[in-house]
Amino acid sequence: MVQPTKEYAEQLDQQDALRDMKKEFYVQEGQIYLDGNSLGLMPKRAEDTLNEVIDSWKNFGIDGWSEGKYPWYYLSENLGKQVASLIGAKPEEVIVTGSTTTNLHQLAATFYRPEGKRTKILADELNFPSDIYALQSQLLLHGYDPDEHLIQVKSDDGRTIDEDKIIESMTDEVALIILPTVLYRSGQLLDIAKVTKAANERGIPIGWDGCHSVGAIPHHFHDLDVDFAYWCHYKYVNSGPGGVAGLFVHEKHLDKRPGLTGWFGSDKDRQFDMEHTFTKAHTAGAYQIGTPHIFSIAPLIGSLQLFEEAGGIEKIREKSLQQTRYMMALVEEKLMAYGFELGNPVEDERRGGHICLEHPEAAKIAKALKEQNVIPDFRAPNVLRVAPIAFYTSYADIYEAVERLQSIMEKETYKAFPNERGTIA
């Protein structure tokens, strides 16, 4: 049974097989960093591999595309093979490329094929704004009014989405489904298997946004017959700000011509033929639009090494669930009297990698926490997201963070701050 005590935290730290991984990261002394679900801390290994790739430019110039420790020409494909183990995919189904939104545009341009009365895109009302902007844009490009053709499944409580309601919305007017694996505010983990099965039975292509789960939660995209997925690497995978994203396309679709084509989507053996007839790659590499951003990819080389050394994504998930369980127990014991509510699902199978704390004065509290060297994430109007990261958050860190938060509430020091977000929440 989880015990909300410091002694229990110390006991868990002693038993933690991943406790030494914290040494692999730059962690500021005295700081408790709980914002890795927004931007992961810097792995020392990522710094090393970035410097190694910079050195290859210095030493090889143009020959860096084919020479050096990490030749650039196949770098995106090679890293895609490594990321495949995080998402349950075949190596040829994954490519490291683009940004989250660019990849969504690419995949929507490929899989959104309105015909007859099948013209609508199904999403949800709690999704991250960037996804919705992209879907609105895709509809407009096809001449459709987003107010009529973008269906957004409503939430009953403002926190979670009922999977049965999503399935009920899969009518014969829907041409594409885009959903988040984990809701970015509440941390709800959707039932990917159930929803994907329902979409497949209705013949509707379905894609998943894995930004808030990849690197924290094991996925099985290939076996679940997911059509496509896309995600960032700068949160739980710790590849750095603006780090290059990733996408998955199931092997059954690899014969498709990408909706948006570019030179680096060519068959690697034919790319330098320089023909004006596009000869696509036979892998997810076909979905690359532009030249790889080599220096933004380089940190990912080092960060992925740590997942392998940790024993794989299942080990990460096991610790993450234990950490969030412990944090919830502390919240129940120490913070509920001060007006906090848990906005995240409490069941392991429905919870992502972060805890959602709701409070009417959350913006003030976030500022007060930062002053106490605890780094949370605020989401308007009333959410504090706190993410204990398996790689670099100890159980003692979790205990101390809640202690500092309880002190802030008890002494009411948060009242000295304005209840409004900063430019960057």
TrEMBL record:
The UniProt keyword set, sorted, is:
Hydrolase, Pyridine nucleotide biosynthesis, Pyridoxal phosphate
Matching InterPro entries: Kynureninase (IPR010111), PyrdxlP-dep_Trfase (IPR015424), PyrdxlP-dep_Trfase_major (IPR015421), PyrdxlP-dep_Trfase_small (IPR015422)
Q: What is this protein's name?
A: Kynureninase
Its Enzyme Commission number(s) read 3.7.1.3
Task performed by this protein:
Catalyzes the cleavage of L-kynurenine (L-Kyn) and L-3-hydroxykynurenine (L-3OHKyn) into anthranilic acid (AA) and 3-hydroxyanthranilic acid (3-OHAA), respectively.
Any one Gene Ontology molecular-function term assigned to this protein's record: pyridoxal phosphate binding
Show the HAMAP family listed in the entry: Kynureninase
Q: Classify the source by domain of life.
A: Bacteria
N6-(pyridoxal phosphate)lysine is found on K235
| One Pfam match | KYNU_C
Give the catalysed reaction(s), semicolon-separated. 3-hydroxy-L-kynurenine + H2O = 3-hydroxyanthranilate + L-alanine + H(+); L-kynurenine + H2O = anthranilate + L-alanine + H(+)
Question: Which Gene3D superfamilies does the entry link to?
Answer: Aspartate Aminotransferase, domain 1, Type I PLP-dependent aspartate aminotransferase-like (Major domain)
The pathway it acts in is:
Amino-acid degradation; L-kynurenine degradation; L-alanine and anthranilate from L-kynurenine: step 1/1; Cofactor biosynthesis; NAD(+) biosynthesis; quinolinate from L-kynurenine: step 2/3
Per the record, its GO cellular-component terms are: cytoplasm
Needed co-factor(s): pyridoxal 5'-phosphate
The record describes its quaternary structure and partners as:
Homodimer.
What family does this belong to? Answer: Belongs to the kynureninase family.
Q: Which residues bind pyridoxal 5'-phosphate?
A: T100, T101, F128, P129, S130, D131, D209, H212, Y234, W263, T291
Q: Which GO terms describe its biological process?
A: anthranilate metabolic process; L-kynurenine catabolic process; L-tryptophan catabolic process to kynurenine; NAD+ biosynthetic process; quinolinate biosynthetic process
Coiled coil regions in record:
none
